[in-house]
Amino acid sequence: MPIIECHAVEKHFQPVDRQHGHCRWRMDEISISPGERIIVTGPSGCGKTTLLNLLAGLLRPDAGTITVNGVRVDTLSTPQADIFRGQHLGLIFQSFQLIASLTVFENILLGARYGRKWDRHEGRDRAEQLLKKVGLNERKDHRPARLSIGEQQRVAIARALINEPPLLLADEPTASLDRANTERVLDLLFALCAEHNSTLVTVSHDQQMASRFDRIVDLSACMQRDAGEVAHV
Amino acid sequence: MSEWSLALNYLATRRVVTVITILSVALGLGLATVVLILSRSTRETLQQETAYWDVIVGAKGSGLQLVLNGLYYLDAPVGNIDEHIWEHLKKHPSVESIVPVTMGDNYFGVPIVGTTHDFFAGRSARNGRDLLAGGRYFTRPMEALIGTDVARNQHLALGGKIVGSHGWGDSGGDTHAEQPYTVVGILAPTGSSLDRAIYTDYSSVWEIHQHHHDEDEHAAAGHHDDEPEGIDAHPGDEHGHGQEITSLLVRLSKPGRRYQFVEEVNAELPAMAAVPVDEINKVTVTFLNPLRNIMLTVAYLVAIVSALGILATLYLTIHQRRRDIAILRSLGATRGDIFRLITIEAALLAGAGVLLGSLLGHGALAACATYCLREFGVAPAAWHFTPLEGVIAASIWCLGILAGLLPAVLAYRVPVVELEVLEA
Fold this sequence. Notes:
heterodimer; A: about 35% helix; B: alpha+beta; eleven-stranded mixed β-sheet; two-stranded antiparallel ribbon; elongated
């Protein structure tokens, strides 16, 4: 059974400049199996982030169906979508999105708090284990500002994985990193996803990364401006 | 990581604003606490004196002045009454005990009160303990028993000499240097007017004034220029009458008959009777309660302003924290979780302010207790908690939480996807 199934999904946008009229993003069909490592590519503005937002329940489609881990995401209410994200998804962002006032350990614990999967002690144990796995055990009491860029992204990965989610969505996770750190972060992501059999969907412009993934999904033809024909995925 | 610890973390991050907000809340409750305790202590101090004596009898004039002078030594005597009235009322069937209070002299402004042992016996029985801190009660003429404040402020000890001056207050009247009193006892602190006077046998006061009167006659001068206007404060004068008394403190066998007793005295004797508790209630209703209400209104206004401070503080931080709220939402926090988080912050701010305010209010009164007793004759019960204080504290806390609801709703309505958590 696929972990992600999308059918005839459409999302309509009104451009900010309003000069180009209506925009429509459409994806006919996509199916992703558990444990797959997918990279989503395409030029800027083609709707890569739109796809992640739709899968995460942050956006609701105007048409079509989206099923993630057996849940119809497109029909969830806002509170249901919030809880769904905490329980089924791990999110990783280009700019890490760590909370500056919390320590590394507390940032990771936040994931457990809103994942609602572990009790207090289990959450702390999981956070301790992940800190060791991402090699930041010595820096658990530091605040994000004192970490390097690569270290901050490793904290974000630990936070995303603390609930052992079946699906990990990563939006340009290595865009801020140099080549060496990119490879290190990818190694870590792949290893931890393999450990929990998590599916990884990553958005990236980096063509060099593509070879390390199982499948490439190109969204170049999904966005149509001034409402016309759209290419199908 | 609970929402409480997350809320505490956010408050600690903005510690300057947090401290200022907490202090503003604390100021409101602290002020209310001070007002409540002071008004309560003042009322209790006043009632303490009126609790034992049912009626006070003195010269015709103001009942309130009679009470303030006879029980609290706060006002000049209305005048004097003849000793025969004392003798007459002693035989009244309703009288359980009757005590004379004779004034006319002072020691550096401290009133010298002539009375009998019964004056202390009643108080001692009421308090359930001996009133003496040291020495003994006066047993012979020209022996004095002094209040604890007098001993401290006038640096008097057992065996010390007191030379009285004629008149009320520190009016600089003639001194009775040839007839000094000897301190034979010091009273334990009571927090009442007892601490602020010198007591002696009433016959000593008479004796001094008889001696003074004889000297005056000898000098062919029958009037004291330094005597306060309107006061014939010569307890020892004998112009064909008996000795004089400033007032009589009366305890009735049946307190319910006090008004009948007052009517009888006022109708049948050349004196006036007043019910102390009624006179003090008039003061409470006329002056203390309105003053207390004004001060409480000020305290409530401060509390409302501080609640608005909580609102402003949280409202502004919501705008600064849109990114953090979006992160929490992306991790699975519901709108309800965000609403609860902001409400908890408001509850913590208001709660800390309430705790600090209570501590500040009680602490300030504890620190000033000695000063209040010395200057105003009121010893505030600094660590006494009243139900009304609890109600006000709870109201301020609720007000703070209510003030947090608007920012909480604002945070609740933050659309997570518009915050660009997931960058394009």
